[in-house]
Automatic annotation (TrEMBL):
Belongs to the binding-protein-dependent transport system permease family. It comes from the Bacteria. The keyword S-adenosyl-L-methionine does not apply. Its main location: membrane. This is Sugar ABC transporter permease. It is a multi-pass membrane protein. Pfam families: BPD_transp_1. It comes from Anaeromyxobacter diazotrophicus. Keywords: Cell membrane, Membrane, Transmembrane, Transmembrane helix, Transport. The chain crosses the membrane at residues 19-38, 78-103, 115-135, 147-170, 191-213, 249-271. PROSITE patterns: ABC_TM1.
Length: 285
């Protein structure tokens, strides 16, 4: 007898169809990583030989592309710069977006959603329209060719989206929880720290992952504000120094992409359930 609420048993065809869909999506999503691994360890002659199968090794694997990446470029420095900038921007984004989203959700009445939507619309402004005025701001502050320039600029597009995202999450939390805490003697700030923040961990984690991903992928601002190689981030340093004229160092490019993407892919998969909840809980509520 089936358990209550378990629904009718699925037919073998339904189960097979589900597995076909799962396997197809798994192959589709894993293929870029497989391609990066293959390209990283293929010899250059093997890469450009059209008679060889591009999906397998036609010659013995090589480490030459990794030697080029780590020996003739500043990849480790770029990776460290990206990590430092990402951590700083995440901290700034959380410090500004979390209290702002809570205030717009709970403390502003009917104007909260309108202001929140107005803030979100600023996220839709293309960077190509903003980098010129922002470059004037960076120049006035004397931050040219410094990591502080992009640490200052990146929150201009991470904070608006994060506020909009967290507003939807905070709206899903019943007000009764805070009212009960206020009756028990907590101040609103204490209720915010002790109740709302722990409940909102999925939304906050989503903001962290989203913000760090944007920082690693951003190109326009980093290219505009930073000129020296030692201050570049991965998103700018790799294409600039591994594409020389019409010569593409494909093996080293793929190695850099693989190394830079693996930590983010690991975090995405580790916290996948919370990440999905952070994006969907407001809509479901």
């Amino acid at each position: 007898m089936a358990a209550p609420g378990s629904g009718p048993p699925r037919s073998p065809a339904t189960r097979a169809g589900r597995w076909v869909v799962v396997v197809a999506f798994s192959v589709l999503l894993a293929f870029p990583f497989y391609w990066m691994v293959i390209t990283t360890f293929k010899q250059t002659s093997d890469l450009y030989d059209t008679t060889h199968n591009p999906f397998i090794f036609g010659a013995a694997p090589t480490l030459d592309h990794l030697r080029l990446l780590f020996g003739e470029t500043l990849f480790l420095r770029w990776f460290l710069n990206t990590t430092v900038v990402g951590a700083a921007v995440v901290a700034i984004t959380l410090a500004l977006a979390v209290p702002a989203a809570y205030a717009l959700t709970r403390l502003t009445g009917s104007w909260g959603p309108r202001v929140g939507m107005g803030i979100f619309l600023t996220y839709l402004v293309p960077p190509t329209l903003l980098f010129i005025p922002l470059s004037r701001v960076v120049a006035r502050l004397g931050l040219q060719d410094s990591l502080w320039s992009i640490i200052l600029v990146y929150p201009t597009f991470t904070v608006p989206f994060s506020i909009w995202l967290l507003m939807g999450f905070f709206k899903s939390i019943p007000r009764d929880i805070e009212d009960a805490a206020l009756v028990d003697g907590l101040t609103r700030f204490q209720a915010f720290l002790q109740l709302i923040i722990p409940i909102s961990r999925s939304g906050i984690l989503t903001v962290v992952i989203f913000t760090f991903t944007l920082v690693t992928q951003e190109f326009v601002y980093a290219l505009t504000f930073i000129s020296s190689a030692s201050h570049q981030t991965v998103g700018v340093g790799v294409p600039i120094y591994l594409v020389r004229g019409d010569v593409y160092f494909w093996g080293s490019l793929m190695a850099a992409c693989l190394i830079a993407s693996l930590p983010i892919a690991f975090v995405y998969n580790l916290f996948l359930d919370r990440f999905i909840a952070g994006f969907t809980v407001g809509a479901v509520k």
